[in-house]
Specification:
It contains 8 helices and 23 strands. The radius of gyration is 22 Å and the shape is globular. The two termini are 19 Å apart.
């Protein structure tokens, strides 16, 4: 009978493990992947963080790079591996938790090879669960190669010929930038009037300014935090106007429907397309946790990661408490808060 099981071995799970180690708890981190850092390594090859190294440290360990450096996905994965080794974090890989249920005073976590029993559970699986593509994508001819950004690595995966990138978030514009540089006709489906923020202002990184003005610390329960959490996230560090001005980039508005090899967008019908990259985000999935209360957007109801189920906690969700909650450097504040809450709870029960 373990004290804790942490489900998810990326930044949220490792940060929580750091504090459970300090508390002397008997725990294990379980992760579905085959290696530490795989959640980052599985993303597209050219991915770079838009936060510089000095703002990416997990609790207790600096990110090993010079100030102002923007890490690659490989840098992050290597940092995680070193973090696990440095703090002797107990982690069990190749373990996908398929169902969680609760008995009177313990939890049962079922996976493909059996069960794990524990007194408490921390869910650290992050916000990226089910890659979303619109239902009409099934009406598109099989002659057109379709891939979600979750599985996209580089332009070498694509067929020869025109491509379309759907989605106006950071990943959409970064992938559009990369694909359009292959000189193929590249259609862009999504909003073009997005807010763009530079990575540096007056010689200081954007994250330095965010920290200085407290932008990352506004609670979602405050008026300003609520407004920020409901607003569309700006694009950071990508020259959106420059990309959209390229001769081979054609904005077409929202993609609305499809009929075989014809893709219907707000501005036109597109024929002759050979590839579509869906940078259309994800849908949460917490259906595998028995008895959990969910909000209308499918995320768990909680108070700073404390759920309606006693002994079940969450960390790493977007706006768990602040804008910084889902960032590499901001996760430690939420982990420390949960650790302090758990210690206080134990004292009241002693």
């Amino acid at each position: 009978m373990l004290d804790f099981v942490i489900v998810g071995g990326a930044q949220a799970g490792l940060s929580m493990a750091y504090y459970l180690n300090k508390m002397g708890k008997d725990y294990v981190v379980v992760d579905k992947e085959k290696e530490v850092g795989a959640s980052w390594l599985n993303r597209w090859d050219s991915l770079k963080l838009f936060t510089p190294s000095e703002f990416n440290k997990l609790p207790g360990m600096e990110f090993p790079a010079e100030k102002g450096y923007y890490p690659t996905k490989k840098d992050v994965a290597e940092y995680f591996k070193n973090y696990v080794a440095e703090f002797d974090i107990k982690i069990r890989l190749n373990t996908l938790i398929e169902h969680i249920s609760q008995r009177e005073d313990y939890f049962i976590l079922k996976h493909q090879n059996g069960e794990i029993h524990c007194k408490n559970v921390v869910i650290a699986t992050g916000p990226f669960h089910i890659p979303y593509t619109p239902s009409f994508s099934k009406k598109i001819s099989t002659a057109i190669f379709q891939i979600h950004s979750n599985y996209y690595k580089n332009p070498g995966q694509l067929q020869e010929g025109p491509a379309m990138v759907v989605g106006a978030g950071d990943s959409g514009f970064q992938i559009l930038d990369e694909i359009s540089q292959t000189n193929r006709t590249t259609y862009f489906s999504g909003a073009t009037n997005v807010r763009v923020l530079p990575q540096e202002i007056l010689g200081k990184t954007l994250w330095w300014w965010f920290t200085k003005i407290g932008f990352l610390s506004f609670s979602r329960n405050t008026w300003l935090g609520k407004k920020l959490s409901e607003s569309k996230q700006p694009i950071i560090g990508t020259n959106v106007k420059g990309i959209l001005k390229r001769e081979n980039v054609i904005p077409v508005g929202k993609t609305k429907d499809a009929k075989g090899e014809i893709i219907i967008t707000k501005n036109r019908g597109i024929a002759g397309l050979k590839n579509i990259v869906w940078a259309t985000g994800y849908r949460p999935n917490f259906s595998w946790i028995e008895g959990l209360e969910l909000s209308k957007d499918g995320y768990p109801k909680h108070n700073r990661g404390i759920s309606n189920i006693k002994g079940l906690y969450f960390i790493g969700l977007p706006w768990l408490h602040t804008r910084g909650s889902a960032t590499l450097g901001g996760i430690k504040k939420d982990a420390q808060y949960l650790a302090n809450y758990i210690e206080a709870e134990e004292k009241t029960q002693a």
